[in-house]
Design brief:
2 domains; two-stranded antiparallel ribbon; disordered C terminus; globular; mainly alpha; 10 helices; Four Helix Bundle (Hemerythrin (Met), subunit A)
Length: 282
């Protein structure tokens, strides 16, 4: 095999390994209720999705290191994410707790899958339009939403609770995760980070804090904590972003009224949009 062809194949092999993890998780969920299968199959299915997270985080980095990024790889990665972080978590959370809600549970699980697919489709469209690496992503990344579901299942298993007893609250949480994926909230991608002294120091601090926290709570709970911190960071930065835009448009409007900048009138015209986003429109 040609050396460069093998380089091109390597990232796609990791992506296909991601697909297998999702497929295996789905087969494990299907076994629940069969003779000889207990609630541990859901725990194993959650672990399979965790392995999928590893392969998903690795394939893109390998492609960038070997400079073998391609349109095929982008589309294949999104298809893999639909399986492993869309369909597999949807079936997992349905069998774990939403099943008690009947058709409503099926609908909520499908909403999660549908929102994940829409999120990935939007990501692909934006990725083909933007050549540079953006430090923000529009909507909650589907692997993060899947991590929230997986962390919940793993944490309940760690405390000896095989399945949830509050299906209604679970349905609300899953629906919120689905909405966040298709929302216009900007979340950090961290792709712009480079191994500088500052980033290494920050990473070291986070690692130390993670070790300290790990001694206090279970490892599955750490996943939920990380997801909660990531979502909180997204909302916090979104509020700062909207506030900054509002200040810029207000300044442009004042400048236009004073005749200091004729071009500022076009910016002032968009102020109503910002006010609507902030819920401050009159």
């Amino acid at each position: 095999m040609n050396f460069w062809k093998s380089y091109f194949l390597l990232p796609n092999l990791f992506t296909l390994a991601n697909v297998f993890c999702g497929f295996y998780a789905i087969t494990l969920c299907a076994r629940l209720g069969e003779e000889g299968a207990d609630s541990d199959v859901l725990y194993k299915a959650a672990l399979a999705i965790v392995f999928g997270l590893f392969f998903d985080a690795t394939d893109g980095r390998i492609a960038r290191l070997t400079k073998t990024q391609s349109e095929l790889g982008l589309q294949l990665d999104s298809l893999a994410d639909v399986v492993t972080f869309g369909m597999a978590p949807a079936i997992l959370i349905y069998r774990w707790g939403l099943e008690d809600l009947g058709r409503v549970g099926i609908a909520v699980a499908f909403v999660f899958l549908a929102c994940g697919a829409l999120r990935l489709a939007r990501f692909n469209v934006l990725a083909t339009r933007e050549a540079k690496v953006d430090k923000y992503m529009l909507g909650l990344p589907i692997p993060v939403a899947a991590t929230a579901i997986v962390g919940l299942v793993l944490a309940s298993h760690a405390i000896g609770v095989p399945r949830t007893t509050n299906a209604a609250l679970l349905a609300v949480m899953v629906a919120v995760l689905g909405y966040l994926m298709i929302s216009r909230v900007h979340f950090r991608s961290f792709k712009e980070l480079k191994p500088t002294g500052r980033t290494l120091a920050t990473a070291g601090t986070v690692a130390v804090l993670a070790v300290v926290v790990a001694t206090r709570i279970s490892r599955p709970a750490i996943l939920l904590l990380l997801v909660a911190c990531y979502i909180t960071l997204g909302f916090f930065e979104e509020m700062i972003f909207l506030r900054r835009r509002f200040s810029e448009y207000r300044a442009a409007r004042l400048a236009s009224a004073n005749g200091a900048d004729p071009e500022a009138a076009s910016l002032a015209a968009e102020e109503s949009v910002v006010l609507a986003e902030l819920g401050m429109d009159e």
